Amino acid sequence: MNVEELREFCVAKKGTTEEFPFDENTLVFKVMGKIYALISLDRLPPQCNLKCDPERAIELREEFDGAIIPGYHMNKKHWNTLFIDQLPAPLIKDLIDHSYNLIVASLTKKLQQELKALD
Asked: Quick check: pTM over 0.85?
């Protein structure tokens, strides 16, 4: 999976917006205004930060040693950095879905209803 495929997968998710709030090299994906994915456009190998359940984050880091590490410049308990060229596309998509779903679950009921209404 390359950066453009990752971007296309993210923007297809309901309620997702993309922006560059930090600098011109960090593409950020938000659902209802809350970040669920960040892609560094100038880092090689290509990297993506995703939110993750803390227990699952530890398991993933152990299983994919070196390809999934604690989140760069993020809360290392809740975020992972993925080296996307070292991981299979289905796993990356699963982890994007996981991150997105964690954020949606943390939204207020009002925002969750607004998200459901987007069709």
From this structure: yes
